[in-house]
């Protein structure tokens, strides 16, 4: 058991605080002989990196990842995994040596300040410490390694709702996702969101969002009953992301409103003699095991708790205060949650791929 | 790692198939000296038991639980836990020796037939085998033990939506939950659902539902960052229940539409000098750690897949067939998911209570 | 984590007390499609069963194993594993309803009475409760299943020392092991031990023993660095057996006295072009990973603590008493530890086989 | 599950290769508010550090440990643990950029070269890579943290045998352990060993050793049945140390030769009314649970495999070669295993302390 690890055969442990010397992770169980360089990881780090548009925090971190162990240049000159633990580290370079005395003893509403203090009696208040979303950088790094393990699987995420404003499903175009600062698959929604979020940002406010992550190419048979269900692990992985308050698979909450007739995914034999589901209400998983269809997960991200409007709170000493969180914040943390959600999906799938291979061969 | 276990310090492992000789569970790590009799467990089993109203399956099982190990009568004549594994068993008494030849090679749409076969190459087709919701009886049994561990914590569940029909929140009355066959806290909704579900049942159809589970009395400080978050484990626990497709904590998906100002739970000092949250949008958890407010979780249950209308499917041999699932089924499996959801909440909390005590003292 | 489980991908959880209604185990992670009947298991149970000679306890238990879940008759009429948890149970039939008042409050020296009471504040004193060697019956059952998973691997155990009397290594003959009541590979030693143990038994005394377990046919590459070493897991598995006080791999403690030259296992290429170790000082494992040679483990079993001579002790209430343990006991528990040691080796290897396949393919 | 982690509530994960940029570990689950500085750890690192006498490898590494996360200066100005993961790192500074072409394709007998290659198909051959005893530096670092968790427990190790030469037990004096380069509690034995090992070293040979580790101050009640036994975990922890081939608790293998009368630890009430064991044959553990007496463990370390005498071996390509291992090696690796054994004992006890507190309170 470990509070800071997830996965079993592809196991990721993260460590580090927002304003400590570095953050990092250790990936244990990765298969050997997989080509892996820092560049393979860095591309995904850059997608999550802050300061890429006016809609994300202006904190500037290069987030340069280093591989400290677990790889070796093979006889063919290619650096590959050796099957031993892969240690990844990112040094924190933007730790402004500012005065924390104001925040030190105040609990910011919506943040983990109060609960960390309640649990541990001590907390690293600098930039949120361990509870900072900065930790998600290492999830993205681990996810990049997981993708290398998953040959033939494509994992993509998209922002599908910002505040109350959803994309139009009929506009979905994966090619658009990299054309706007929101990872929106709907170009029109992206335009609308830009204007909307400018208003939110200028008001010093924030809004929530919904992210959708889809994995294609997962064969049928991955996952396991009963407590090792693929969707159970996806739900846990997504819910563990900072600020996430809900997770859905396939039809999700809408399934509650449907009849059995409408929710069933009928099956036929396709042109090449393979089973083919006519719909994908299930989101690609039945009884916790993949059915060969795309895995579809969605998660809701709450609005950034750091806002410029004062909120009632208390100090560590039990005095009532009003707290306003200055500093560099995301008006919508859901945006940068997209690559994080992709990474978590990748890690869960890499783990289940190995678990399946272990039991079944 | 175990696909059929959950929890760490309060660890539950279940086994058994729907139509095998018995189902059971082993609870490891339970603290010693806790009074525990079969009657303590049976009351909760009876809440989940099938055949209690016309709205649940007419399968008749007494679901009589036996304690096979882990208890001892103490010097005071009271049977108590000894700290060793508690083995619980329920014999299957309603295994009708019917002809399964029709279902044996057919994949029922929406069920795990296809995926179990894809994964294992063999499956127990009798009544769904391992994938049957019958397994949830052992969750309820384990949950009953977990409740004994959790002194001062009250865990209650309710059905808050059937098909598209939600309760009226202003009607919420816990006292009503046991007055209707739906665990509805809204007496009027229960009346409406009765009529609605009669129609569904007579049509041989089914509908989904939403269950809400609330735990009161959890002190602040339970849970842990980052992958051991209390809400992460609750999400996994609920998502592992048969037919669940979505999980929310607190505001859940609605949080996506809110601003930071509206979603913040402000804090004040109450009359006795204790911290007091003015609202509970968070559902009682911040940064994965309980804040002392009620824990609030909701999950969506899809419509029962077994319906009387034919659906397109295939056989194990790859032939196209139309499948209609006869037999005794729940028109709305969400109803019986209420005690199951309560049990999962209890097990997660018992585990986190012990984990917290281990690290913090 | 679980105190009553071991293994990861082939995971065994045991439950039950010596004098409760039954004992049992749950095996999770077993691959599907492996032929498995109760008879496959029963043969191994019978080897460990008490009362088979005058040198083991006269307690009479048929130790009839039942498979409660995880198997299904396949299309070919053969009962096979389904990949779901295998629940095994043995009912306790020889629970003499005797008067336990004498033992109830007395701590038998050498037994776990004192420590269970110190830890839990309550203990099942009937026949040792959970700490009884009766628990090892379920290890043997699980080991029988593990053997089915391990195609091509032969696991055999032998008693190599009784009290101070060792076998003559040059007499080793596997065929003799089943020809005497000691699992001795040395027929002469068996004769000597028979006389020796008769004396021990008649004196109401007991002696220790050493067991050796050898696994042949394990391919090179199983196991893992650093804390998942094959020999680490074997050591833990053997040390967890009741009364075991030491474990060795290969040369074991004798390696301390050797030079690097003498302890090295030199390597050559054999007639068919395969690597061949010229000696097996390592016991078949290097750096925690199997090298293709036979795995060799030995463990020391302390003398049975239950003896007819009075020993000084105290009561639960803190009074000094002298304790003599009447009843049916093994003069040398090491004998019946042979099939248990084999079973533990089988379980560890089945687990590492699956773990290896998971990571490497 | 993780091959590179051990412990459950006090969980240690190590990473890194002998000649990579750094080695490190992550400690998860450490209680908060424990004073911890780098100096607290460094003292123990220095005990294990190479190059401290002519009897250990002349590799020169400062082994300077850095704390990268998990600590915070508290209001009282003292740096303390925060309850979040503690990341420790030691940079490798003595990675001589030498020519590895000779060793690259040759399997050194007694080393893990052959088996790593067999398992992974690739290996870091530089200095043994992951299988290097350099990894044990991080065990020592973790052990230093574990000691801080264990208030009131004293853990000390000693070398009790070098080659065939044992200490005289009657000479045991803990004060001598730091007065000689062998951690010998017997000053005379140390003198003898110095001369003996000089001969071994000059011959380019090596010898094995036996280490004893004793923990005093452990209260009764730590540990757990059946597979979570304290001695089981100690056995696993010691066996996981490089080159260890055997582990004993208390009387160990000698218990096999004893009678039940002689092996029993009788109990009396001491002057202050507390239970008192008259002997400690058990090594402080009964039924897997501590009895309040000193925990006593011993382990055998095989002779260093790197010797100057040629041994027969093969290359990765399957050619027969003779291999002689030049370079800086320990004539007796058992010496430096003493602080490593202490550290493993500390980590196991810290884990069991927290596990006990979790279940029992």
Automatic annotation (TrEMBL), chains A, B, C, D:
UniProt EC number: 4.2.3.5
Q: Which reactions is this enzyme annotated as catalysing?
A: 5-O-(1-carboxyvinyl)-3-phosphoshikimate = chorismate + phosphate
Q: Which InterPro entries match?
A: Chorismate_synth (IPR000453), Chorismate_synth_AroC_sf (IPR035904), Chorismate_synthase_CS (IPR020541)
- Residues the entry annotates as binding FMN: 130-132, 242-243, 287, 302-306, 328
Q: Which cofactor does it need?
A: FMNH2
Where does this protein hold NADP(+)?
48, 54
Please explain the role this protein plays, according to its UniProt record.
Answer: This reaction introduces a second double bond into the aromatic ring system.
Name it.
Answer: Chorismate synthase
Q: Which organism is it from?
A: Roseibium sediminicola
